[in-house]
Each structure stands twice: as C-alpha cells, then as structure tokens.
Amino acid sequence: MSKKTVVSGVIGRIAHLPDTPFEEIKSLWQQIFATPMPTHNRQFLERRIAYRLQEIEFRKIDRNLMDRNDRRIKTIIETGQNKKRDRDHRPVAGTVLTREYKGVSHRVVVTPDGQYNFQ
Domain of 56? Predict the structure, then answer.
C-alpha cells in the first residue's frame, strides 16, 4: 500500500520532484521559466527546477541581500569593475603549520602579533 505524505513548502516540493510524473514536470517548467523545456533529460529538469524554486523562495526571505546585490550589479555595469574587498590572508593566531621535508618535521606557530615562531 503506497501512502503519499503531503509536505508543504519548497523543501517538500523539491523532495517530491523525483516522484512527480513527467507531464507535471513539463507543466512546472512552463510555470516557473515561461519557456519551452530545453531538453527531455529528467534529471537536468529536476535540478534546474529545484534550484529555481529555492532561488524564488530565498528572494522572499532575504530582501536586504537581494537589494545589496542589485546595487553591486548596477555598479559593475556602470564602472565595468567589481570592487574587491581587502582581505587579510594571514593565518589566525595559534595556527600550527606543519611540514615534513626530507624526513624532518618542521613546525611553525603563528603568534598573536602576526609573527611566526619556528620550532
């Protein structure tokens, strides 16, 4: 006896995509993308639909992030450049760097002042 459980929300819709008849997959594609399916490869369609469903849901949740991304995109279009953040690529204090060279183990500890202590 097969029992179908109803799971609401995006996660439920995505979880049930593999069990969804192909005709419904085609219909869902048309609803979401408003274009004809590019292929009849079911796995491809399921993955694209799942991604798009999550994308739509995420846009509802984090409007702030979407607005910030829109501003960044506008800036890139206007200036032609993406402003990169300055990042500190040094390891965190207390990090132990260990390497073995010619059978000898070498250890270096990163100190709180950003220096390295060789042992």
Answer: 9-79
Look at residue 2 and tell me if it is in a domain.
no
Alpha-carbon gap, residue 75 to 90, rounded angstroms: 29
> 34: closest CA among 13, 14, 56?
56
> pLDDT in tens for each of the 119 residues of the chain?
344 444 568 899 999 999 999 999 999 999 999 999 999 999 999 999 999 999 888 877 777 888 888 888 998 998 888 777 667 777 888 899 999 999 999 999 999 888 888 87
Considering the domain architecture, whether residues 96 and 70 belong to the same structural domain is answered as no
Helix (H, G, I), strand (E, B) or coil at 68: helix
Sheet of strand 96-101, all strands in order from the earlier edge strand to the far edge: 96-101, 104-110, 116-118
CA distance 116 to 95: 10
